[in-house]
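#structure-requests
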Amino acid sequence: AGIPSAIEHFNRPLSQRQQWILESLPEYGSNTIIRKKEINLRDLSALTAKTGDEFHLFTKGGYRWVFRGNKTGINIIGSDSETLINGGWKLSGHTHPGTTDLCLIPSSDDYETLETLNQRQSVILGSLGQYQIFGR
């Protein structure tokens, strides 16, 4: 359970931990802060395989802040946005739904996020667990 490609191709279940994370992110715009050891980038890819939605994962110290988007993007606004920018959070990675290498191409918004967070690089993952490092 919990393997992105098996979820995408064979509708296999999420792992218990991934299911718990998804339940804490029930809809577009949901976000949650959890301990770093409780989520990794493969989990993010599995969530995208299950839902078809984008997820973003930010890290600061021993914590990770996870945001749920929709099929075409994510919108982090208001105080959450300010806290990410001014609070020392870094974009560990995010997902783009899809099974081909085309889903791993960074958007202009992806580059803008790195610029805003004063970050050199991050990772994009697809629905199968494939990934691409991108940077400014």
